[in-house]
Amino acid sequence: MSDRNQDYFLPKEWHGKCVTLTNYRGGTALDVAGGSSNNGTPVHGWEVNGSRAQQWVISKVNAHDVWSPWTLQNVASNTFLFNRDGLSEANVDMWCWSRDYMSHGIADWFLITQERDQNDPGSNEPIIMLQNAASSMYVDLWGGLSNNGTRISGFYRDNLNPNQLWQLRLVR
């Protein structure tokens, strides 16, 4: 039995898996613009197309620690999702950056699982919120819009706000 007011972390069995993350409201995927490997490339919402720009390898920072945050490494660009400069301000855009800029937890994320609505006929794939370890901000699809290119930014937690809920789908 689970408590809807209690946060639960994604189980360690997901460590090293390649996934896509689809926003619960907008239905768009977390996508690196053009699959570019340039540092500072924005991450945005884009229609699900199965491209490598939408595939992420999720890895625990410390595989043996239950409280460990995770990193999200994009398959196309080989860069990591990060909260620009670890800022704890609302509406800071999410970017990707190479490993050499991985300091102070700005590319570390707590993957917090959420229960599915009992009326949701969806699969058993997890629904998660991504909380930045440095800033405590949550990955948010701007306005929950389904338009290609919609901003992905950090925002304060808004319990069960579908703009901040992401469905994890296993790629391989």
What does the model show?
By secondary structure, this protein is an all-beta fold. The protein has a single domain (8-170), classed as Trefoil (Acidic Fibroblast Growth Factor, subunit A). The protein contains no helices and 13 strands. It has a 7-stranded antiparallel sheet, with no helix packed on it. Strands 3, 4, 7, 8, 11 and 12 form a 6-stranded antiparallel sheet that branches. The N and C termini lie far apart (30 Å). The mean pLDDT is 89.
The proportion of strand residues reads: 35-45%
Largest sheet: 7 strands, antiparallel
Count of separate structural domains: 1
What's the total helix number? 0
Order of helices and strands: EEEEEEEEEEEEE
Low-confidence stretches: none
Reported CATH architecture: Trefoil
Report the CATH topology name: Trefoil (Acidic Fibroblast Growth Factor, subunit A)
Write down the overall mean pLDDT: 89
Q: What's the helical proportion of residues? A: under 10%
How far the N terminus sits from the C terminus, by CA atoms, comes to 30 Å
Rg (CA only):
15 Å
For the record, what CATH class applies?
Mainly Beta
Organism: Plenodomus tracheiphilus IPT5
InterPro entries: Ricin_B-like_lectins, Ricin_B_lectin
Pfam families: RicinB_lectin_2 (PF14200)
Domain Ricin B lectin: 5-86
Topology:
Blueprint: E1 8-9, E2 17-23, E3 29-32, E4 41-46, E5 56-60, E6 70-74, E7 80-83, E8 92-97, E9 109-114, E10 127-132, E11 138-141, E12 150-155, E13 166-170
Antiparallel strand pairs: 1-9, 2-5, 2-13, 3-4, 4-8, 4-12, 5-6, 7-8, 8-12, 9-10, 10-13, 11-12
